[in-house]
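Handout, section B. The chain below has 187 residues.
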Amino acid sequence: MSKHDAFTKKARRLTGYDYRLGGMYFITICTQDRYPFFGEVVNGEMVLSDEGQIAHDYWLELEHHWLRLFLGEFIVMPNHVHGIIGLEGTVRNDSVLGDELAVSSNAATGKDEYMTSISPKAGSVSHIIGFYKSICTKMIRSVSTEPFGWQPRFHDRIIRNQPELVHIEKYILSNPVNWQGDRFYKP
């Protein structure tokens, strides 16, 4: 897959930005075809299905896999997950300080070098979300009667300041109450 959307040729990530850098990121991950695997909203409250509970529990587990990761507000909705993740630390020589899963890519050559250049970097937001989607998929498929899947990509926004963080936190927390007006709502 290229780094561009197949129809608009628009880059999916901020060009030139290193998503291993310290900062906070607002993430949205949707289920395939926005199918409501994760439960339903009842009277403005999210009621998780077994699949939704898995998505919820594994989101909380992310902090235990990356020392430099911290979690902000998040919500599992019927067909998507909204969450804030933060990264601490700095990048040096293609590895991330404080990230026990970081691997240097300096040894790659030829085809391996190309694959390294297009793959998510260890400790990056893409790497973390890929891990989350993978483990959730495995666990959900072991309990679900429906064929579970995610949309291939995810949406991110780099949180630039405190007022933006507060606005996003309010959006996440009010998502169940505003569900029928949400752009991800599918009756």
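Note. The longest strand covers residues 23-30. Compare this with the example in section A.
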